[in-house]
Amino acid sequence: MQLSEFNGIRIEIRRKIKEIFGNRIGSLETFDIVEQANHWAFKIRFIAYD
What's the angle, vertex CA 12, arms to CA 2 and CA 8, rounded to 5? Predict the structure, then answer.
């Protein structure tokens, strides 16, 4: 997977979460990003229904 494809996936997941939860979600944070050959990972943290 190329870096630009990985960034696109992260952005799309964030967009979907915001779309599903709408105004019931607070800040949305992406962290612990791992970008190695053949291994891509990240974590997402957000508060919903606060």
Answer: 20
What HEC string does the chain produce?
CCHHHHHHHHHHHHHHHHHHHHHHEEEEEEEEEEEECCEEEEEEEEEECC
**What is the residue range of 24's domain?**
3-48
Look at residue 1 and tell me whether its pLDDT is greater than 60. no
- The tally of domains found in the chain comes to 1
pLDDT tens per residue across span 7-41: 888 899 999 999 999 889 888 899 998 888 788 89
Model pTM? Answer: 0.70
